[in-house]
Design brief:
- Helices cover about 35% and strands about 20% of the residues.
- The chain has one domain (about 25-90).
- It has about 90 residues and is of the alpha+beta class.
- A two-stranded parallel sheet has the order 1-2.
- The N and C termini lie far apart (about 40 Å).
Amino acid sequence: MLAPSSPSDLINRSTGSIFDEPQQPAFIISAEFDPFSDDGRNYADRLMNSGVPVKFRLYTGTIHGFAWMSGILDQSKALLDEIGREVKLALG
């Protein structure tokens, strides 16, 4: 198989998506003061533009790795609760 000459060559013209089948929803989290925060938002946007159901959540005032700080950060506790709700929702 040859590589596409541009990213637009990957798009299914009938669906407007790069995917041929419906995709599972994505839950993407970014920390406000994370060097990768913009990457998370951009990834969420690209998935949404490709027809993937996306929930994006920016945790303000947080840094990279805050999820592991539940002993000291209330936002971490809230994040872990939110992840639990999303997993429960996804699994039915």
